[in-house]
């Protein structure tokens, strides 16, 4: 046991929903004291930085109930039970945008809110996009506006806080870095 | 009402804890159908990319109960009620690292998990660090190992997935971008 580890004494399951579940864990701290941790369990997610042949970034405008507003994000979605992340990325890209892709490459995975949630996002970059004729349909409770932005347009939306979430901010900065490295 | 908006019909409060609260909202979708949204309310947080005079990045190794492991992160912490984010960033930097700073500049704010949570992180960059003699103490349930990493070391830990969260990945990439732009 590392010096920082917190040992679980008791787990109280509070809620189990269709997306997340919540439990409160009583833990023993490294100094022997007792504390509580509120923890959200999430199935994990994928996000896709999809670039058209004209180097436009495929984005979706979507209402986010947690924020009570629409924001512009790269396509993303939750992993289904035992689903391979790359397969999930291809599925979500097709469902949300109608695009298939010839190339899909893993970029990075990160936890979004390690202080209270185990959600991980696996970020992929997709190239060689082609519209599918009979594309998979979005989830029945999912409504999005499709957009295809230049990097400059994405930077503008980021400044205006219409692009406003961690995975999309990371993806835009990734493209800024690639551009700077190639100049 | 925009075409994408989801109107709340009913809110069921499930849990209210010391960090997060959970509610389930029954919503009317843009097509008139009814669905449910599971929503976590969070007070918001700050994170600090703090650079020493030798350009080392101040990081903290911390056990994250949600992940059941330690990860290496930039210093961060929750906003207190009505707390100004910049004041919070200075407080958290001092509590977690013992450092005060001469310069604190806002870089970006982003939502971490817009699909289910309203948590926002305000990211600052701090320079002109100086150790405080009687620094504020960390929260009583907070145990961290202080580290000061070169960019190359941070890139190494990122590859090894010891740095593994969105805000820290964003901060490391920010430094990579600044380096590329200045070359």
TrEMBL record, chains A, B:
Residues 40-171 form the Nudix hydrolase domain. It holds the Pfam family NUDIX. It comes from the Bacteria. Coiled coil: none annotated. InterPro entries: NUDIX_hydrolase-like_dom_sf (IPR015797), NUDIX_hydrolase_CS (IPR020084), NUDIX_hydrolase_dom (IPR000086). Keywords: Hydrolase. GO terms for molecular function: hydrolase activity. The keyword Hydrolase applies. CDD domains: NUDIX_ADPRase_Nudt5_UGPPase_Nudt14 (cd03424). Its cofactor is Mg(2+). Its EC number is 3.6.-.-. PROSITE patterns: NUDIX (PS51462), NUDIX_BOX (PS00893). This is NUDIX hydrolase. It comes from Cytobacillus mangrovibacter.
